From TrEMBL:
It holds the Pfam family DSBA. This is DsbA family protein. Residues 96-238 form the DSBA-like thioredoxin domain. It comes from the Bacteria. It comes from Sedimentitalea todarodis.
Length: 255
């Protein structure tokens, strides 16, 4: 028996409603589920995606030293300054702290998203933290990036190291210096300097204070995300942080 036009329309509407209902539900579903971070009042976390875990790397490492304990105490006293540096959270600009490892398979994508947001004028100010948890090559690359920062070439070197492997040895450092017009002798000195070691130790202390156990990780204003996050979701989180009426990092703590 042939279907009447009305029957066809009713069937079509039923199918359309079946497809549309989940979308309507999504519109009313909370975008983020926030959980407080223990010991850090005002900060919170949301679930992220895949990450490279540092737990296996940390296994068997010596107990925390007195210096590690001191650094963590300093972070706990002023987590805003430790994570974001001396930059104010004002005028609608959201500070973001980025924790990456150059051998983390998920870090290049997230780093690329952050770079695009910077280039397109997103309302963010970014602080980069080296978190070389995946072995000696990660540590060598982190030292090279920090040494490049001393000569104003951090971001170009950072982007390059995210896309390539830094071979061990001084020859690869010389080649990197030539590629980015960096003075090679200073570059090698800075890479092995005490100041570079201290920078990595401070970032490690910040990560420990916030409970970061792998890369990539982002502290977006008051919200921690450990693992991958899509660009559209990150942009929504930035918008949420812009409207926060009582951020934990006021201008007084960052001035």
């Amino acid at each position: 028996m042939p279907l009447r036009r009305r029957d066809v329309l009713i069937a079509a509407c039923a199918i359309g409603a079946t497809i549309a209902v989940p979308r309507v539900i999504d519109l009313f579903r909370p975008e983020f589920t926030f959980e407080p971070i223990p010991g850090l009042p005002g900060f919170r976390s949301i679930a992220g995606g895949s990450m490279s875990s540092a737990q296996a790397v940390f296994a068997g490492i010596d107990p925390m030293t007195e210096q590690d304990a001191r650094l963590r105490q300093e972070v706990a006293k002023d987590p805003c300054l430790a994570a974001f540096g001396p930059q104010p959270w004002a005028g609608g600009t959201v500070p973001i702290a980025v924790f990456t490892d150059y051998n983390c398979p998920y870090c290049p994508t997230l780093s690329g998203i952050i770079m695009v947001l910077i280039e397109t004028g997103a309302p963010i100010s970014v602080t980069w933290h080296e978190m070389p948890v995946l072995g000696p090559r990660s540590m060598a690359a982190a030292r090279a990036a920090i040494a490049a920062r001393a000569q104003g070439q951090y971001l170009p070197v950072h982007e390059h190291l995210m896309r390539s492997v830094l071979p061990p040895g001084p020859a690869s450092l010389r080649a990197l210096a030539d590629r980015f017009d960096i003075e090679p002798a200073q570059f090698q000195r800075d890479g092995s300097s005490r100041e570079t070691t201290q920078a990595i130790d401070r970032s490690s202390a910040v990560a420990a204070a916030f409970g970061i156990i792998g890369t990539p990780a982002l502290l977006v204003g008051r919200t921690l995300v450990v693992g991958k996050i899509a660009r559209n979701r990150l942009e929504k989180l930035i918008a949420v942080e812009q409207t926060d009426a009582d951020p934990p990092c006021g201008t007084s703590s960052l001035d």
